Amino acid sequence: MTYNWITILFAVIIIGSILFGAARRFGMESRLVVSQAISIATGIVAIWIGWLLSRHISSYVLHQNTTHLPHWLAQIFIAWQRSPRIGAWIAFLICYFVLSSVIHQLLAGILGQIPVLLPSVLGRSRVLGAVLGAAIGVVRAAIGGAIIFLVLQYFSIPVMAKQANQSWPYQLCSQQIYKPWLKPFVTRALPVFAEDAIQPISQNINLFAVPSGTANEERGVLLVPKQVAKLAQQITANAKTPKQKAYALYEWEIHHITYDWKKYDDYVYHHKWDQQSPLQTLETKKGVCADYALLYADMAHAVGLRVQIDEGIGGTATDYGSHAWNQVWLPNENQWITVDTTWGATQDEWFDVPAAQFNQTHSEQTAIVIDASQ
């Protein structure tokens, strides 16, 4: 029998809250509910302030030249440029702890008086305590679901995404609460384009394409810059099989190329596409999904692999957008394997993912097959 752990989590939180509410009785439960309501309201305000603050900081930092800044400040700017998502969380946490400390200090005396002010009969009622516990349990379960929603926005976890898709209480909260209220704060953090930002990939590489006879597919041969080819050969020097070569290139790219949020911002917010070649990606050490896929294709082609560049839709259970990734042909196994270096840079689990699992988060629309170099 298959259990949905997200649905079970919702049930456990609600039932536990009912039991604890009955045990604490209405008076003490009322005090706890008011305190938690204040914390939730504080968190909502902190999210809003932190989001506005992080957007202004990111807009400044991403376009700032760090050359003439003091070393310590330049390091902070560089860290923010590389990990704007972490910066957004830091802004939220600072806002939350400051607001929470101030508000609870101001209201501590009032909270302590709540059980005393209630009539004795009401304050001792276990039934009313259980009812109040049920209400707050629903809120707690929704907050737990919100945490899962945020995790799925920032990370690609197919197992959790599948559970979320199959959980009816989570889907209900997602449609009514999370998507309308939380999604606007986290859409830009997902490493896919929420708009059709990817320009035709064939415009960014030296590709001699020939008709393949298959819809939405091209075939061709790449001209790889010497610097890229030399590096690829160095990276795969100790690899014996095509799969070992493909994995060595994957590991190098996910640890040496970072996601370019400035390029993302330039397109999404300013409608400017910063076109770059694989060589430029290698030199700058940053790019978006198309740049990851193009550089990987160049390197794979340079070491004799047959590689494919896929364009389509990628995303989590709740947020999809334009995306690009690769496939590599393994002649000794007579099969293609999937390689997503963009997501691998965030979570090193996107090499040779089983097709059934990979297709939950990736949907191919067009492909360019690059024949193996001779």
Automatic annotation (TrEMBL):
<feature type="transmembrane region" description="Helical">
    <location>
        <begin position="33"/>
        <end position="53"/>
    </location>
</feature>
<keyword id="KW-0812">Transmembrane</keyword>
<dbReference type="InterPro" id="IPR038765">
    <property type="entry name" value="Papain-like_cys_pep_sf"/>
</dbReference>
<dbReference type="Pfam" id="PF01841">
    <property type="entry name" value="Transglut_core"/>
</dbReference>
<feature type="domain" description="Transglutaminase-like">
    <location>
        <begin position="281"/>
        <end position="343"/>
    </location>
</feature>
<feature type="transmembrane region" description="Helical">
    <location>
        <begin position="86"/>
        <end position="107"/>
    </location>
</feature>
<feature type="transmembrane region" description="Helical">
    <location>
        <begin position="127"/>
        <end position="152"/>
    </location>
</feature>
<keyword id="KW-1133">Transmembrane helix</keyword>
<dbReference type="InterPro" id="IPR002931">
    <property type="entry name" value="Transglutaminase-like"/>
</dbReference>
<protein>
    <submittedName>
        <fullName>Transglutaminase domain-containing protein</fullName>
    </submittedName>
</protein>
<feature type="transmembrane region" description="Helical">
    <location>
        <begin position="7"/>
        <end position="27"/>
    </location>
</feature>
<keyword id="KW-0472">Membrane</keyword>
<dbReference type="InterPro" id="IPR052557">
    <property type="entry name" value="CAP/Cytokinesis_protein"/>
</dbReference>
